[in-house]
Design brief:
By secondary structure, this protein is α+β, with helices and mostly antiparallel strands. The chain has one domain: HIT-like (HIT family, subunit A, 2-Layer Sandwich). Helices cover 34% and strands 22% of the residues. The chain has 12 helices and 13 strands. The chain has a 9-stranded antiparallel sheet, sandwiched between helices. A 4-stranded mixed sheet has the order 1-2-3-13. The two termini are 18 Å apart.
Length: 363
C-alpha cells in the first residue's frame, strides 16, 4: 500500500482503517487508537486574547484529540497540536554566555575536578570518564566531553562518546562479573535534567536484574512473543512502517514513536551497538539540532545483559530512545501530573517527525 506523504496524526484512524487486513491486524495487536472532540464556549472578552495566542478562535471551539495506547507496554499519549500554543513564560538563552559567565565548571578539568573509578579512567579521543560523585547505583560514571558546548558535537565525537561508555562498561564487568546490565544516558540541558551545562553523558551498570523500565519491556515483549509467536520489536517496527512512520537504514530501524514519552520521540533498534546504530543516533540528533531546532533532549541506550542471566533476552535488540524536552528558555515544565500518573500529553506530530527524519537521512 502506498502511504500518503502528507498524513497528520489527526488522520490516523482513517489511515489504519485503510490498511490491508494483515497489516491492520498487526497494528491493532500493538496499538489502540481513538479520538474525541473537546468543545468550549469562550466569552467575547476572551476572543482577542485567543486570536493573539492561537490564531483562530474556531480551532479552540472544537479540538480533535487523538488517544493512542501501546497495548503491550501500556504507554499512552493524547495528541492535541493546540497545546503547543498555550501560554509559556520564556527567557532568552545564550549558551555561550552561560558557559562563560556561569558557576565554576567542575568538568572543565575532569582530572582534578571529578573523582575516578577504582579501575581508573577511560580516555577517548573526545572525552574521558569520571566516577559520578552522587551515584544512581554502585557503578555510575560520567562521560565528560572535551567540548564544553553540549550542542557542538560531530559524528566522530558522538561515536567516541558511545564507544568510551562501552569501554567503561567492559572495565566494570571485568571488575565485577555480576554487574552486567548496562545503560548509556545523555540528558542535554536543564530541561532534560542536566545539572551541569558542560556536555556530558552518564553510564550505569547494575546487578541482579536490569533497570525497572528495561525489565518491564523485556517481560512485556516475552508475553507478546508467547501469545502471538512474533517478535514484538519486529512487529512494532512493521506497525509503524505500515503508516510511513518507520524505515530501515543500514541495518538500523528508525521509528517515529506513536506512543512517545514526550514530544518527537524516536526509537532506534539494532541487533548490537553497530557503526550503523551510532550513525543513526548522530543523524537523529543532527536532525533535531539543525533541522527542527531541538536543543534539549534525553537519550538512552538499553543493551541486553553482558553475560548469561536466568531470564531470557532472546529477540531483545539494542534499543535507543531519544526525546525532545522542549524549549530550554521556557520556565514551564513539560512533565506534570498527567505524564507521571496518567498518560503523556503531546503536541508534536509523529508523521511530521517521520518526514523530517526520512528527508534528513535521505532514506
Amino acid at each position: 500500500m502506498a502511504i500518503q506523504q502528507d498524513l497528520s496524526i489527526t488522520q490516523i484512524e482513517d489511515a489504519v482503517a485503510a490498511l490491508p487486513h494483515e497489516e491492520r491486524h498487526r497494528f491493532e495487536r500493538i496499538f489502540d487508537v481513538s479520538s474525541t472532540t473537546g468543545r468550549l464556549v469562550p466569552p467575547d472578552a476572551m476572543i482577542p486574547w485567543i486570536e493573539k495566542q492561537f490564531g483562530d478562535v474556531e480551532a479552540t471551539r472544537e479540538q480533535k484529540i487523538i488517544k493512542i495506547t501501546n497495548r503491550v507496554t501500556l504507554e499512552g499519549v493524547l495528541f492535541n497540536w493546540l497545546r503547543s500554543s498555550r501560554p509559556m513564560w520564556r527567557q532568552e538563552l545564550d549558551l555561550d554566555r552561560e558557559l562563560e559567565a556561569g558557576p565554576p565548571d567542575p568538568l572543565a578539568d575532569p582530572y582534578n575536578g571529578t573523582p575516578e573509578d577504582l579501575f581508573g579512567r577511560v580516555r577517548g579521543k573526545y572525552c574521558v570518564t569520571a566516577s559520578n560523585i552522587a551515584k544512581f547505583d554502585g557503578f555510575h560514571g560520567l562521560v565528560v566531553f572535551n567540548e564544553r558546548h553540549p550542542l557542538r558535537f560531530t559524528r566522530e565525537m558522538l561515536h567516541d562518546y558511545i564507544d568510551t561508555g562501552g569501554r567503561w562498561g567492559d572495565l566494570v564487568h571485568a571488575s565485577d562479573p555480576e554487574a552486567k546490565y548496562y545503560v548509556f544516558l545523555w540528558n542535554c540541558l536543564w530541561r532534560a535534567g542536566a545539572s551541569l551545562l558542560h556536555g556530558h553523558a552518564q553510564v550505569i551498570m547494575g546487578r541482579g536484574m536490569h533497570y525497572a523500565a528495561v525489565e518491564y519491556l523485556r517481560q512485556r515483549a516475552a508475553v507478546y512473543q508467547a501469545h502471538n509467536r512474533q517478535n514484538y520489536f519486529t512487529d512494532l517496527f512493521l506497525a509503524h512502517a505500515s503508516l510511513g512512520l518507520a524505515f530501515e537504514k543500514e541495518g538500523t530501524r528508525v521509528i517515529a514513536n506513536l506512543a512517545p514519552k514526550k514530544e518527537n520521540e524516536v526509537l532506534l533498534l539494532a541487533p548490537f551497538v553497530t557503526t550503523s546504530l551510532k550513525d543513526r543516533v548522530y543523524d537523529v540528533l543532527e536532525c533535531f539540532r539543525d533541522r527542527m531546532g531541538i536543543t534539549s533532549f534525553n537519550l538512552v541506550i538499553y543493551t541486553p545483559p553482558w553475560s548469561d542471566t536466568p531470564e531470557s533476552w532472546e529477540g531483545f535488540p539494542v534499543v535507543v530512545r531519544i526525546v525532545d524536552r522542549g524549549d530550554p528558555s521556557s520556565r514551564t515544565a513539560d512533565i506534570g501530573a498527567m505524564e507521571l500518573y496518567a498518560a503523556s500529553v503531546v503536541s508534536s506530530d509523529p508523521f511530521v517527525l517521520a518526514r523530517n527524519l526520512r528527508e534528513s537521512m535521505a532514506a
